[in-house]
Write a structure and sequence with these properties.
elongated; 19% strand; two-stranded antiparallel sheet; 7-stranded mixed β-sheet; Rossmann fold; 2 domains; alpha/beta; Helicase, Ruva Protein, domain 3
């Protein structure tokens, strides 16, 4: 059996009922080429390889011990198990740049936010995501504007995806048990990948706004507000939804 490695943020899901619920949520989407991130001991992988033909599914893990274990356990599927770093793999980058995909996984908590920024980078082709996250991160992603959890990831993901909080998973369903609760969420692509404003500027406006989230936008966006009156400039960033951030970006863009 694979030993969980702390430096990789590994907490292996052990409850088959939870695994089945994750798979059920994932299989409601059209059967695109699917990628499992963080295959671990294969609790999700085993179910996925029974649902997808070989040419439509791969499982990726940075842990050599996990990949070797999966290849031994499912030898007829060994070419579908990749020892790769999802965040830096040239193969994955090429795949996400050329093909429509769905993504599933019990994501390593220490890189879960980076995985989501990679999803945003390839939003034209990443159509649906069902993943396990630290509960706090899951709540942040799905948080509505006006809540204290609402932040950069909330705005950027909700710009391009419908975010859905599916269910909470308690610590005892993992080996080793994490010190925090977990949650499964879904991201569903809105197919609205072209913004009416410059995307790079939009991302910059959102990120800059939340760097000083307690301040009003007049202050946090001072590099632009000192030269013009911005929409919603007397509000704090967590009070605005993504459409309102688009309005601000449009006003800035028209003056640049």
């Amino acid at each position: 059996m694979v030993k969980a490695k702390k430096h990789l943020g590994q907490h292996f899901l052990t409850n088959p009922i939870i695994a089945e619920n994750i798979i059920t949520a994932f299989l409601k989407y059209p059967p695109l080429f699917s990628i499992e991130i963080g295959a671990g001991t294969g609790v999700l992988t085993e179910k996925l390889i029974s649902h997808f033909p070989k040419h439509q599914f791969i499982a990726i893990d940075i842990d050599q011990e996990s990949i070797e274990y999966l290849k031994q356990k499912f030898p007829e599927h060994s070419d579908q198990f990749l020892l790769e770093d999802f965040l830096h793999s040239s193969y994955i980058h090429s795949l996400l740049s050329t093909q429509k995909v769905n993504i599933i996984g019990n994501f390593p908590y220490n890189i879960s936010s980076q995985i989501l920024f990679k999803v945003l980078e390839h939003k034209e082709n990443v159509m649906n995501v069902v993943g396990m996250f630290q509960k706090e991160v899951a709540e942040r992603i799905c948080a509505p504007s006006g809540s204290k959890e609402y932040g950069i990831l909330s705005v950027l993901l909700q710009t391009f995806y419908h975010t859905k909080y599916l269910f909470t998973v308690n610590e005892g369903n993992f080996n080793p048990p994490p010190k925090v609760k977990s949650a499964v969420i879904a991201l569903e692509n809105k197919n609205e990948n072209t913004l009416p404003v410059n995307e790079k500027l939009y991302f910059e406006v959102v990120k800059t706004s939340f760097q000083q989230r307690r301040k009003t936008l007049r202050n946090s966006l001072k590099k632009w507000s000192q030269y013009q009156t911005l929409p919603y400039q007397d509000k704090r960033p967590e009070q605005l939804n993504y459409q309102e951030f688009i309005e601000i970006t449009k006003a800035i863009q028209e003056k640049v």
